[in-house]
Design brief:
103 residues; mainly alpha; elongated
């Protein structure tokens, strides 16, 4: 896989993973919820979003390992990636909490 394609894959996976908890009402887009009525609460969405941040980060480490040596990162890198992941989640948050739905 070329480096250019890898960069676009990372951006696409991060964008989809950041929006998934807000768009889909299933847990991690796979498991059905026990209470099928209503929407997921914000706390559950936030927890799912944080778990998906770490899952996506693990996938990105795997891609980096396949491309070569893993470069050690400091706290600044993780703070920046968390802020970018939160920015990517904005469209899903707006769709889930700020738009009117006729449910």
């Amino acid at each position: 896989m070329s480096l250019n394609l890898t960069v676009w894959l990372v951006i696409l996976v991060a964008f989809v993973a950041a929006n998934l908890p807000f768009i889909n009402q299933r847990l991690f887009a796979v498991l059905p919820r026990r209470q099928a009525r209503g929407r997921k609460g914000f706390g559950l969405q936030l927890l799912e979003w944080l778990v998906l941040y770490f899952v996506a980060g693990g996938f990105f480490l795997l891609l980096e390992r396949n491309a070569g040596q893993i470069y050690p990162q400091g706290w600044e890198f993780y703070a920046t990636t968390l802020a970018l992941f939160a920015t990517f989640a904005f469209p899903g948050f707006v769709y889930s909490h700020l738009m009117r739905h006729n449910d």
